[in-house]
Amino acid sequence: YLDTGKYLERYFPNRGIRFIAVSDAIDSLKSAYDILLPIKNIFNEQYARDISKKVHASIETKQRAGDFIGAFCAYGYRKSPTCKNRLIPDPCAAVIVRRIFTLYTDGMGKQTIARLLNDEGIPCPSEYKRQHGQLYRNGRRLDSTVYWTYSTVNKILHNQVYIGNTVQGIKTQQLKSRQRTRNREEWIIVPHTHEPILEQALWEKAQTLLGRSAPHPSPGTSPGLFAGFLTCGDCGRSMAKKNRPSVPGAPPDSCSGTYTPPGPRYCS
Hints:
single chain; 7 helices; 10 strands; 10% strand
């Protein structure tokens, strides 16, 4: 309503633009606007808002029923050929998902997992979908990149879809407003809607490690005794054990890791 009034009353007249509305029998060249035109604009605005509410209500009803309404499935799943609102495991991608969780729970970090998958030539989720004919595009990824990243692995490790839960309603958008991310308490989570890829024990172990936010040790080494429990008193980051040789005349130690005295210690 506000934008329409601005165009009709200011923008068009100032630029000599002729406005014609056939269904409302309006022609700015022949006569001035009818006094009812602003009222019609208000009704048009209200009609659009009413339609928006009904569409949102319909979508939310399907989400709460456990129906998948997204355009693209999470990596590791595909839509059922008999019901587009149901997910079934994708055998090829499901193997990679299970491997990611296994590697992470065995002590490998997310960046190391991404590097390993890249070294083996395994396509990342967006490239995998493209290779299978899906018109998927990740807006936050460069078009020239087809590799795994830390954030991709991290997103997979946090996704409940792999234990059979459907998680939707993470973001919302109202009429004439920007999309916003809802609080986690507002997400629509429906359990046991499809076949899980992971065992519950493996999922819970991974979530425990993610919650601790502790740096993972390198493969073949053991984590420190206090890994996941000690944090730096200055910056608040998690602390990890480091072994480095002493450097004569080096400045005092700090959590930035610029210098480490001999023997085991904990720093970020």
